[in-house]
Write a structure and sequence with these properties.
Layout: E1 3-7, E2 10-13, E3 18-21, E4 24-25, H1 30-41, E5 47-48, H2 49-56, E6 60-61, H3 64-78, E7 88-91, E8 95-98, E9 104-107, H4 126-136, H5 140-162, H6 168-178, H7 196-243, H8 253-282, H9 287-318, H10 328-345, E10 353-354, H11 358-381, H12 387-396, H13 406-411, H14 419-441
Antiparallel strand pairs: 1-2, 1-9, 2-3, 3-4, 5-8, 6-10, 7-8
Helix pairs in contact: 1-3, 3-5, 4-5, 5-6, 6-7, 7-8, 7-14, 8-9, 8-10, 8-14, 9-10, 10-11, 11-14
């Protein structure tokens, strides 16, 4: 049976996705309404923050500040006060509880929704009060609430009244960031507006700080996923090389290549994963392009550094200079492909980091792996070197090496690594790298 909740002058209908006050709908973004419904449904207990995240934000990773902001918005919408709560009480070091005694649970039929008593009339000029708080208050929470309130009142009018008054640049930046949390909020342009460049700088700094907090665990998980995929690729490749006809590779080659693969995959995923995690935390309106560019930047940076360090190490230890080892361009291409595949597999229209579960998570990893595999084929066709072909190049330059990949090429009908074997080996590496990276990146931290 469908139910709805009445308390005071408010009515919440989960089935109709509505919050009303005296019969008038109050706007709430879907997740905030979900939070209110959870607190109402479990009003006889204090709901732990982790339970709230797992229920309301089950498909996305957000910071603790997102929950605090959601509760502040609910309190403001309900006219509640955190210091003397009537509806939502904070339970220290645990979570939140809905404490209003007069909640009535009733069948939610098709009858019109009516409130139990009339709403209180609004007084004063709400725009001026909210604008004063936005530009002068030192409390970040109060300023955020004021920004959201102005969006509810009317974004265009709020911007018009803001004008060039003192503190307008940080206020405009906060209005731009808060518009994602208010349904129906209008655009907040920065370029060409008063203090637009300063506002853009403040907004970028604000989101970067948030990104560092959000991205740290995601980056580590992505690195671990890439390292695991690299180890698996190396171990399977070493086993195939050991069993290939005419191969003289020792039995330990699988272990050796697994170690090399873990190092290469972990380093590559560290760069690409850092870029993707930062882009996902910062970008909202242009999430897809940001993921592609940040993935490319992270992969290119790690590739270039690894190439330089590898060449220095080989030259210093063995007196050989090997300029054809893969590097920055290969990392750039693979990172961009990872960002593209991940963006296509995890589309989001709001803030936060995607955390698909179950089959959806595997699908995201598979799409990212296919995108990286396609990029690897193109890279090798253009003469680039990924891990396998770089290793083969090094082996050919050191007499007595047993890890050359010619036996694998002969299994594919080529005497040495040619276009076909390079493409297949590259696709294999790229697919496992992308799959492991995305699987790690979508791991939900506990």
């Amino acid at each position: 049976m469908r139910v709805r909740y009445r308390f005071g002058e408010f009515c919440v209908s989960p089935a109709r996705r509505l919050l009303l006050r005296s019969g008038q709908e109050l706007p709430l973004i879907p997740r905030y309404l979900d939070l209110l419904i959870v607190l109402l449904a479990r009003r006889h207990e204090a709901v732990h923050r982790r339970d709230i995240f797992d229920t309301v934000w089950s498909d996305v990773v957000v910071s603790d500040g997102a929950l605090s902001q959601a509760v502040r918005t609910l309190r403001r919408t309900l006219g509640d006060d955190s210091r003397d709560p009537v509806y939502i009480r904070t339970v220290s070091r645990h979570g939140y509880r809905f404490v209003f005694d007069g909640v009535v649970e009733e069948p939610d039929d098709d009858a019109p929704l009516r409130a139990s008593r009339p709403a209180s009339p609004a007084t004063g000029d709400p725009f001026e009060g909210a604008l004063e708080t936005l530009v002068t208050d030192s409390d970040p929470g109060a300023r955020r609430e004021a920004a959201e309130a102005l969006h509810i009142l009317g974004t265009a009018e709020a911007l018009r009244r803001l004008g060039r008054r003192p503190g307008h640049a940080p206020a405009r930046a906060l209005l731009r960031d808060a518009r994602w949390d208010v349904p129906g909020a209008g655009p907040v342009p920065l370029l060409g507006q008063p203090g637009g460049l300063a506002a853009a700088r403040i907004l970028t700094t604000m989101r970067l700080r948030r990104a560092l907090r959000l991205a740290e665990r995601r980056w580590a998980a992505a690195s671990a996923g890439g390292a695991a995929a690299g180890a698996l690729a190396g171990a399977l490749g070493g086993l195939a090389l050991r069993l290939a006809p005419g191969s003289h590779a020792p039995a330990s080659v699988a272990v050796t290549l697994a170690l090399v693969g873990a190092i290469v995959g972990g380093l590559g995923a560290a760069g690409v994963g850092a870029g993707l995690a930062a882009a996902e935390a910062v970008a909202r309106s242009l999430r897809g392009p940001a993921l592609v560019l940040a993935g490319a930047a992270g992969g290119g940076a790690v590739g270039a550094v690894s190439n330089l360090v590898g060449r220095w190490a080989l030259e210093g230890l063995f007196g050989r200079e090997l300029p054809s080892i893969g590097g920055g361009l290969e990392g750039l291409g693979l990172g961009a492909a990872a960002g593209l595949g991940y963006a296509l597999a995890t589309p989001r229209h709001e803030g936060g980091m995607a955390t698909p579960r179950g089959a959806e998570r595997l699908r995201a990893a598979a799409v990212t792996g296919l995108s990286c595999a396609a990029a690897a084929v193109v890279i090798t066709a253009l003469g680039g070197h990924l891990a396998g072909t770089s290793l083969n190049f090094v082996a050919r330059n050191f007499q007595g090496s047993q890890v050359g990949l010619a036996p694998l090429a002969r299994m594919l009908g080529e005497p040495e690594l040619g276009p076909l074997s390079r493409a297949i080996i590259g696709a294999y590496e790229g697919a496992l790298f992308g799959f492991g990276l995305a699987l790690g990146l979508t791991h939900r931290p506990r």
